[in-house]
């Protein structure tokens, strides 16, 4: 590799790291939000709701929230309810303690200008909520055949404060 190649890779790595740091610059306390999970057995899906309890606007990165119908429809690779590399933080836990992870998905990288680094996040105003849906088929094993009441969804989320 030539020196120029290393320089370009270094600049790109630095730029991406800077954008990531800006986006996740101010984490929030768990007291500033709630997460509600509904198991809609008849519809074969989980509904998740992120509720802002803060007096400030909170954000969640697009890849850290289940893909909406609009996102799935507008992409050839994003599936409804899929999340970006979330199999470690989103899974069904059965009563014996078995984990059934969300299928791995790569939504790619959201590129935003330095002036609009929050163009890659959904904004939730104070007191409002964001609702998402995860179909059972998004898990690595058949959740629909599990006995009702013998499993639950573990859904870890990391919202952050949007810039003022």
Explain what you see.
The protein is an alpha+beta fold. The chain has one domain: Immunoglobulin-like (Sandwich). 16% of the residues lie in helices and 28% in strands. The chain contains two helices and nine strands; from the N terminus they run H-E-E-E-H-E-E-E-E-E-E. The chain has helices spanning 3-23, 69-73; strands at residues 33-40, 45-52, 58-61, 90-94, 99-101, 121-124, 129-135, 151-155, 160-161. A three-stranded antiparallel β-sheet has the order 1-2-7, with no helix packed on it. Mean pLDDT is 78; it is low at 1-24.
Helix-strand layout with pairing:
Elements: H1 3-23, E1 33-40, E2 45-52, E3 58-61, H2 69-73, E4 90-94, E5 99-101, E6 121-124, E7 129-135, E8 151-155, E9 160-161
Antiparallel strand pairs: 1-2, 2-7, 3-6, 3-9, 4-5, 4-8
């Amino acid at each position: 590799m030539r020196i120029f190649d290393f320089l370009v890779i270094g600049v790109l790595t630095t730029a991406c790291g800077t954008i990531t740091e800006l986006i996740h610059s101010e984490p929030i306390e768990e007291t500033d939000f709630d997460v509600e999970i509904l198991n809609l057995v008849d519809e074969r899906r989980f509904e998740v709701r992120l509720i802002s309890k803060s007096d400030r606007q909170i954000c969640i990165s697009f890849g850290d929230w289940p893909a909406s119908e609009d996102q799935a429809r507008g992409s050839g690779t994003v599936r409804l309810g899929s999340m970006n590399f979330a199999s470690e933080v989103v899974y069904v836990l059965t009563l014996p303690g078995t984990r059934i992870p969300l299928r791995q998905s790569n939504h790619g990288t959201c590129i935003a200008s330095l002036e609009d680094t929050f163009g890659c996040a959904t904004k939730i105003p104070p007191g409002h909520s964001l609702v998402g849906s995860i179909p059972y088929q998004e898990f690595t094993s058949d959740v629909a055949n599990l006995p009702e009441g013998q499993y639950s969804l573990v859904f870890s989320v990391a919202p952050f404060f949007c810039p003022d």
